[in-house]
């Protein structure tokens, strides 16, 4: 089955789904985030989400599932998950606006804890996805490619689906 939200940014193309190897599940997650670049600079905020896959409750497995990620930012520490919601800044639509789209993500853990990525505080939180009955094992994102010099980059726009196993 698949769980989804529909609150992401409007730019970019859907990337390929990336799945954990057969028989494994997403035991933890890591975020790729670009820090604020300051006034009059181009921000991208959340650039990627990576699932760490394992075959047991030991999250130290070596496989990952990462749908396409932007080139900016750094990867965070890992955490565990079963559902998600996104924080998205609505299109600014101004001549000098700096569009960023998805700015952060929250993931629900099977033990009830909520993990929030180290994204920015811009935008509003959307609704929560349904929860995977047992575990997540794949991810599909929408990524806006680099626009080139003097253009407005948004990087990760949407995490539309986590695949449940």
Which key terms come to mind for this protein?
165 residues; mainly beta; Vitelline Membrane Outer Layer Protein I, subunit A; four-stranded antiparallel sheet; globular
List the SSEs and their pairings:
Blueprint: E1 2-4, E2 13-14, E3 18-19, E4 25-33, E5 46-54, E6 63-66, E7 74-75, E8 83-88, E9 102-108, E10 114-116, E11 124-125, E12 136-143, E13 156-164
Pfam family, one: VOMI
Organism: Aptenodytes forsteri
Protein name: Vitelline membrane outer layer protein 1
Give the CATH level 1 class.
Answer: Mainly Beta
Mean of residue pLDDT values: 81
Shape: globular
Termini gap: 7 Å
Q: Structural class, from secondary structure content?
A: mainly beta
In short:
With 165 residues, the protein is mainly β.
Describe this structure in words.
The radius of gyration is 15 Å and the shape is globular. The protein contains no helices and 13 strands. It has a single domain, classed as Vitelline membrane outer layer protein I (VOMI) (Vitelline Membrane Outer Layer Protein I, subunit A). Strands 1, 2, 3, 12 and 13 form a five-stranded antiparallel sheet that branches. The protein has a four-stranded antiparallel sheet with strand order 6-5-4-7, with no helix packed on it. It has 165 residues and is mainly β. InterPro entries: VOMI (IPR005515), VOMI_sf (IPR036706). One of its GO terms (cellular component) is extracellular space.
């Amino acid at each position: 089955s698949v769980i989804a939200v529909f609150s992401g940014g409007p730019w970019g193309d859907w990337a390929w789904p990336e799945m954990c190897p057969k028989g494994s599940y997403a035991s933890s997650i890591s975020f790729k985030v670009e820090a604020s670049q300051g006034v009059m600079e181009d921000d991208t905020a959340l650039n990627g989400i990576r699932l760490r896959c394992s075959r047991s409750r030991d999250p130290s497995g070596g496989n990952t599932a990462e749908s396409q990620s932007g080139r900016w930012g750094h990867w965070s520490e890992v955490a565990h998950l079963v559902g998600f919601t996104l924080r998205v800044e609505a299109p600014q639509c101004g001549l000098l606006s700096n569009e960023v789209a998805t700015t952060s993500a929250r993931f629900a853990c099977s033990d009830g804890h909520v993990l929030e990525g180290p994204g920015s505080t811009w935008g509003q939180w959307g609704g929560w996805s349904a929860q995977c009955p047992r575990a997540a094992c794949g991810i599909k994102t929408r990524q806006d490619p680099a626009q080139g010099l003097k253009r407005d980059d948004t990087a990760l726009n949407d995490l539309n689906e986590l695949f449940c196993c």
